[in-house]
Task: structure prediction
Amino acid sequence: MENIIKNELEAQRQLNIINELKERFEKEYQKTGIRKTFHIVTFGCQMNSRDSEKISGILKQIGYVPTDTEDADFVLYNTCTVRENANNRVYGRLGHLYTLKKQRPDMLIALCGCMMQENTTVEKIKKSYNFVDIIFGTHNIFKLAELIKTRLDNEKTGGDHSDHMVIDLWNDTDMIVENLPNDRKYPFKAGVNIIYGCNNFCSYCIVPYVRGRERSRNPQDIIDEIKALAQDGVIEVMLLGQNVNSYGKTLNPPTSFAKLLQEVEKIDGIQRIRFMTSHPKDLSQELIDVLGSSKKICKHLHLPLQSGSSRLLKIMNRKYTKEDYLDLVERIRKAVPDIALTTDIIVGFPGETEEDFLETLDVVKKVQYSNAYTFLYSKRTGTPAANMDNQVPAEVAKERFDRLVEEIHKSVQNNSKRYENTVQEVLVEEVNEHDSSLLTGRLSSNMLVHFPGDKSLIGKIIPVYLKESRGFYFIGSQL
Ligand code: SAH
Ligand code: SF4
Ligand code: F3S
Result:
């Protein structure tokens, strides 16, 4: 209770600051006739995409208008640090931003997201990229207006640039501050956070360190949010969390993800329900039963395998074996025979032998995934795996990676062939990026189809004939 009051007071305090800045920006606009622009670059997963919508909501409320390029008054990078190459991309782009900033000295640059939760990153930015104006992390996005205000007020007091940098980073939080402005990317589908953080500490993974401990949102808050979305025209929701299957365990009274799904199912207007991500160790029989009986949950489950070797899975701290995983897949397929399974796999985890890798290939052959995201192991400082002394040489990992991708392609092709010459319900999402005479829609199985059609169909669920499978997508036609 105490926490709920604390969160609501904080939300109110932030709304006051947003309004104060809004007045300030409006006065400037009256003088100049020019609105200030902003641009957000989002790296990483859907958690970050959802956070960027919150950031965008706050900025629009203050009076900033969105723009498509980084030539803007305010540029924000919402960063990811799950693998080393995600970090490198940020540093590369920052160099380019510096050139832009030299041409427009009033430009503000903010960095936020998972990379900022690492001390070494922040030290590096203070030292080598001191033109950055604001740094914040994953736990205090709701404070953005306050940080902008602090930065603008600093400006007035003078001093050299490095004194101006506003840095606000929290190691962890028990706060969930809601009901702040929000800007959805699509009018007809929306992501909804249900659980923040992660407690699993898979030995290779940085996420628990940068996203903090698991915090489940109150079920009523989630239901209220989805009802409001449905009222607003949303027909598909994606429930988000690093491990949705542990939703509700720490709430008082405790509840479960399966129960939450049943409540979401009852909401009028919502036609499709998706969720990401399911940890195999916590996927209950109760949830499988709900998947089997639901009319709205999409026929797609993302079930990260990481490795098919029980020996490696133990060292990865995944808490399931190859056999547990295969048994789970069998039970899921029995309940929902036409479900599309997708996965994440890491190649080259420390100590991975050819035998371990063959176990992974074996699972891929047996499960026949509809899609799989494959990653070369990337050493993350601070995780247990980073200190393991048997790191796999890059060329060995690369060779296995290529073999894995080849095997996955085969199952992707086989799976999509099965849908050829069938009619499927498709949520039409957008005009095709490359060919504006085509629309792009998504099947319940999460696969994409491109077909000729009018953009008035965007946001509707319609039947589409799948003429030809091209592996990861289909070419279709309207009926
Ligand atoms: N919470 C999700 C995954 C989030 S990270 C889950 O547990 O399934 C997304 C994917 O990145 C992971 O599934 C894993 O395959 C990959 N990944 C995480 N850390 C990695 C690392 N250090 N190197 C390579 N891939 C990694
Ligand atoms: Fe990382 Fe494991 Fe948590 Fe997923 S469950 S975010 S892989 S620690
Ligand atoms: Fe990356 Fe953070 Fe997501 S590290 S994968 S953006 S939780």
In short: Residues 2-32 form the longest helix (31 residues). The mean pLDDT is 95.
